[in-house]
Amino acid sequence: MLCGLALALLAGTLYVYTLAPSVLPGDYAEFQFCAAILGVPHPTGYPLYIMLGKLFTMLPFGDVASRVNLSSAVYMAGAVGILYACALRLLRLAGMEKVWVAALTGASLFAVAPTVWSMSLVARSYALNALLVGSVLFCLLSWRNSGRVGWFFASCVLIGLSMAHHGTTYLLLPAYGLYLLLTELERRRRLADAHPWRRRALGVASFLLGFSPMLFLVYRFVGGSPYYWGNPSTWNDFFNLVSGGPFHSQVMGYGSDFGSQIGRVGFGLGELLGQYTPVGVALGLTGLAVLWRVKRAEAGLLLLMLLSNFWFAMNYSLVGYLYFIPTYLIWGIFMSLGAGWMLRMLPFSGHRVGRRALAFGVQGIAVMLLGGAVVYMATVRFPNIDLSSQTGVRDQALALLKTAPPNTSLYLDWEAQSVIRFYRLVYGMRPDIALHASDPADWPKGVYCDITAGTPAYVGEFAGATPPIVTRDFELDPAPAAMARRVTRILNPALYEMPPCGTCATCR
User: Fold this and answer.
1) Cα separation of 81 and 122, whole Å?
2) Reduced to 3 states, what is the DSSP secondary structure of residue 475?
């Protein structure tokens, strides 16, 4: 396990070195300010991430945004370590306990996989999800193969936490349930439990304890919140949010016909190849075959988990490629098993002193080759993933907040709105500014009312360098923009001669 801990620390060091140093646009900023103020972000609300993120915001270094980013680095480093632990346990169950270097193979390749690495640097939910999925898997394996009841309760708690954190975990429940059922049947056959129903009842209680962070969303809904995505006003609104209702249309977003599904499978396989290369994919297939031959229950558990996650990710039409991370974690375990089988097949493995010394030397060479390959991959990928110098969003937002006149109206898209909200909600900056979150198609009317009333108006980027309709009807400051450009005059006032709206200062 010391090797796994060392690998997790190395991965964490890499992630911290390349970590985003401040606020980022869109969902990133939303997670950052929600963690700081204990708000509720977009569906499904992510209560566990927000509450844990609040703890990170209390760290005494960096700005608030960077502290929340750091949480992802910690979670993903933990996922690397738990992958190593899962692989090591399965290698031992398969009778390959001496090839410890094999466990390093999958875990280290997972650590530098492009999507895994990139999601370790920003405030998003995927790193914590990977850690929880890996932790559930390790506890389930430990429960069936050790029989220690503590692993059963840990599995129940972690399954509850996973479900409270990320909706995709629900797709893994059939795999978890079948594996737990198999374990129960085996224990019943062996009469391993004196009071099985007491244990099962405590297991249900443990699950509910893990699921309890969902109460945070209820508390914020009933008691109010400084920010609650969608501003739900009824229980129907609440359940629609926590169930991910606004994004249900993205599931199976590419069609369910055979041709579409074949195309999506190709997309998913392309993503897997992009993370692990053809050699890694082949190594994982070898590991799956080896595990299926010697430990079919564990192979079935991992395969069903992988297929469930893979199917969802390949069909989700909104950044679906990010949802493959649990697939990459499981494939990392398969790669470790494949590497273990290859090392075991060496002709000089055995018990004689000379052969053991030779095998030890070969393992040392394998470690050096693996280390060289991982360092090479990290070096090649580093320029495209490193975010340590990405301060542009912060600088532009602060410049806009500094230069905007009092009582300015800001018309910004979602990405920029979230950044301004971060500084307003976390640092209390510029409460006088009116931030308009309306449909950009309605911007021109609002801008017209503001300019007519003498209110300064700024328009951000949307669908290009400047919003086309706004550009047609209004003159914008030609100076380089700091996230938004000021509207200087109306070009076509006749287009806005309409009955008073009754809401703005001009019409009132």
Assistant:
1) 20
2) strand
